[in-house]
Amino acid sequence: MEAVFRRESGSVTATLIRQFRSIDLAEESVQDAFAIALAHWARDGLPPNPGGWITTTARNRALNVVRRESTRSERETDAMRMSPPTEERDEEPDEGPMGDDRLRLIFTCCHPALAPTARIALTLRLLGGMQTPQIARAFLVPEPTMAQRLVRAKRKIAANNIPYRVPEHAELPARLRSVLTVLYLIFNEGYAAADGEALVRRELCEEAVRLARLLAQLMPDEPEVLGLLALLLLIDARRPARTRPDGMPALLAEQDRGRWDRALIEEGLALVRRLLQRGEPGPFQIQAAINAVHASAASPAETDWTAIRALYDQLLALAPNPIVAMNRAIAIAETSGPEAGLAELADLDLADYQPYHSTRAELLRRLDRRGEAAAAYTAALELTRNAPERAFLQARLRALRDQQA
Amino acid sequence: MTQYLLSVHGVEGQEPPPPERLPEIFGAVEEFNERLRRSGAWVFAGGLEPPDTATVVRVERGEAVLTDGPFAESKEHIGGFWVIEAKDLDAALALAEEGARACENPVEVRPFQPVPQE
């Protein structure tokens, strides 16, 4: 049942939003339909087409509400309308994937007029079918805060008449970037933390991959969409090896590569090969290619750092930002030695970014500059709240001090 | 269709454009206004005198009390505005971008409440 809900709720919600022009009404009707389904299916078993069953039931619920509402004053119903009826209202959606309601929904959820945190929450709630408490837990915010965030976002969509459609050609690249970034942030939120909430966090990774797959299926001609999917698959493939048996995070070089998910890697590599042939590079594709290089190395020593460095050069030219520059410095340290890497790091303005300090610490340690390395580990610790991550840095720091003593 | 307020925000103390550039900016704004009128998006627009020309009227215990100066003790003030009609937020944002380019100041987009229907 949970699986059916996950698979179907986004699509049913998306269709109902188009038909009834109200996010709230769509959400409530879909919830009701699943509650009814739960009772029916427990008694009669799963119908041949559960998705169709849910859609019909939800639509009937929504129609009932609209009929009831129409006897109330128009003003009250207006308050919950997503947008006033427009000339396109009764138009049937276009044929083909671009006419898929889920695509309309994801562009509305990720509209740049909404706050980035709201885009993420709305996408998980409406397309991912996640419940508000679940989303709140995953993002470590109190439930009322998350509920408020969702209410505000939905109100903004309705009051501003944010359109429910796939953006036109000219707007598409910028709007698509927002969608891809939202999916990437959802994935990262799940991947970055291996703490007590591990289960919920894994859910975020899985949801991001599922939505990226959906997007790739709906927009198969967009190289960056495929690039994002490849990137997520290749990173996700390493998830089983990312935590050591003692719960501490394992660095890429320390991971047991036998535990990497080969099926995900093959799928990711095939996508990267296809994208290389197309030759329309973008930031997500390049990051996917970097991860493809890692995934293709049987051992850390066999990693083709020269290729990685060239890819980071390309990424930095396309999307200049200090975090990319930091990762490029790591590649430089591998190809030209830790000293060269440190020199690249020196000019970066990343004092508030924990990995910057742990990267410096690691390079200083390799150069046997123990005092400076200890100072950098300490700086990294001050910026770390995640428990396993702290334990890891503390262990490194202890090892350094033991050596010094 | 939805009506939107596009308000032009100026920051107090921010360097005003040099006088010789003003005709160019006014010209760009007038061209934008003309485009709004031709496309049917135009509802109303106007530029405002500086905030220190404002007076606030407050009713306290049934009496009107006047205060000299703008309502909010803020560094930012509305310098002018357009009221436009657009099919959706994307259309309004595109017009706001044109407006912001023309007047060389940030423009805030805010929807009007729908007019209650009979």
Explain the overall architecture.
Among the domains of chain A are: 1-81; 98-218, no CATH class; 220-249 and 257-303. Helices cover 70% and strands 0% of the residues of chain A. Chain A contains 19 helices and no strands. In chain A, helix 5 packs antiparallel against helix 6 (116-127). The longest helix of chain A has 22 residues, at 23-44. Chain A is elongated and about 80 Å long. Chain A starts with a helix and ends with a helix. Chain B has 118 residues and is α+β, with helices and mostly antiparallel strands. Chain B has one domain (2-111): Alpha-Beta Plaits. Chain B contains two helices and six strands; from the N terminus they run E-H-E-E-E-E-H-E. Chain B has helices spanning 22-39, 89-103, and strands at 2-11, 42-47, 55-60, 63-68, 76-86, 107-111. In chain B, the strands form two sheets. Chain B has a four-stranded antiparallel sheet with strand order 2-5-1-6, covered by helices on one side. Chain B has a two-stranded antiparallel ribbon with strand order 3-4. In chain B, strand 3 (55-60) and strand 4 (63-68) form a beta hairpin. At the A-B interface, helix 4 of A face helix 2 of B.
List keywords for this structure.
heterodimer; A: 405 residues; mainly alpha; B: 118 residues; alpha+beta; Alpha-Beta Plaits; two-stranded antiparallel ribbon; 2 helices
Provide a brief overview of the structure.
Helices cover 70% and strands 0% of the residues of chain A. Chain A is an all-alpha fold and 405 residues long. In chain A, helix 2 packs across helix 3 (50-71) and helix 11 (223-236) packs antiparallel against helix 12.
Major sheet size, sense and barrel closure of chain A: none
CA-CA gap between termini of chain B:
17 Å
- How many domains of chain B? The number is 1
Which structural class best describes the helix and strand composition of chain A? Answer: mainly alpha
- H/E order of the elements of chain A? HHHHHHHHHHHHHHHHHHH
Number of helices of chain A: 19
Tell the overall outline of chain A.
elongated
The end-to-end span of chain A amounts to 60 Å
Helical coverage of chain B, percent range: 25-40%
Oligomer: heterodimer
Tally of helical runs of chain B: 2
In CATH, what is the class of chain B? Alpha Beta
Question: Taking all residues together, what is the mean pLDDT of chain A?
Answer: 88
Radius of gyration of chain B: 17 Å
Number of strands of chain A: 0
Instruction: Assign the CATH architecture of chain B.
Output: 2-Layer Sandwich
Largest interface (CB within 8 Å) is between:
A-B, 15 and 15 residues
What is the global morphology of chain B? flat
**What is the arithmetic mean of pLDDT of chain B?**
91
